[in-house]
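Incident log, structure service

09:12 report received: a user says their structure output differs between two submissions of the same chain.
09:20 pulled the input from the user's history:
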Amino acid sequence: MGRVAASLAAILSLVGLSACDPMIIEGCESSEDIKVYCGLEKPEDIEPLGDHPWLLISELGSGSVPGNIVALNIETDQLTRLNAGIESNSEFSQCGPAPEKLRPRGFHVSDLSDGGFLLLVVNAADGERIERYRVDVGEDGPTLTWQGCVAVPDTVFPNDVASTGGDGFVVSHMFDGPRGIGLQAKFLLGIDTGYAVAWDPARGWTKVEGTEASFPNGVEADPATGRVFVGSTYGQTFVAADVTGGRAKSVRIPVQSDNLTMAPDGRLLSVGHTGIPVVGTRGCQSMAGAPCSFPFAVVAIDPETLEQEIIYEHKDGRIPGASVALSHKGFLYMGTVFGDRVSRVRISTDAQP
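09:34 re-ran on a clean worker, output below:
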């Protein structure tokens, strides 16, 4: 009973604290150590296209600005919003016509055997669906071809997606039910609210046992080993399990994990807020999309041993609070749902090629 009372007191104490003042970023100029790519609307997730000089960006958009898949040429700084052609994939479940609009949350790129790429997108524009695209890179840059979609059940609230090989994938289910006071209390206490859910054409949707966490956010998968990885925002944990639910284990990490990415050295990168859970980013949430910063860090995690290393920290308010950190060709590229830009810094760790 004493532990419960202490937990309730902690909730009241945290709720009573004012969130850290948001650090608004004025202008859009690169500096000696930070390069910025502006003109975006909440660039939440970033994925590379192999060795090509292009990155794909999941531009979440807003109520008045539609979301997009955006290509960034890191050699010329060119930003291109991509329009998709249509080519039905009979092996992939169809849940309706190609989307008229996108509101992409997390997304995932994987290699195809013929040199192209598979792109899976969590689309929250009209209901929840997983869109599948083929990506090809030519002289003029990347092109998208929509191949189909999978409807997400009403019981699943996905944030991120990752391919498990073939036509299968896994998503992070953030929480059950409406986002009310009870759910906020669970977030504050780090109580489990969701888990990872896998889909494949033969079995449909199945829960990945052992991945329960408080606000599961980023998700990654290793098709070669069958392992699934989940970053918990409010539990501040990193969870690893077989896609069938076996060998589940977790470790506490020093960030409120957002999206996960795979680094060139095989470690998983988790980026997240390092301040007061739940309320610490509230000031930025009220800024209506203005570039807004809060303290965050990037952690590299070994998928086998779960050993971890902080490879980057930001506290001085020059980069919007990061939602993804991608290690690519010696740099960290960081996207955000709290601003209009992707930020790039150089790193010199084993998390680069």
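09:41 both user submissions now match this output. Likely a transient worker issue. Closing.
09:42 reviewer note: DSSP finds three helices and 27 strands in the chain. Residues 2-16 form the longest helix (15 residues).
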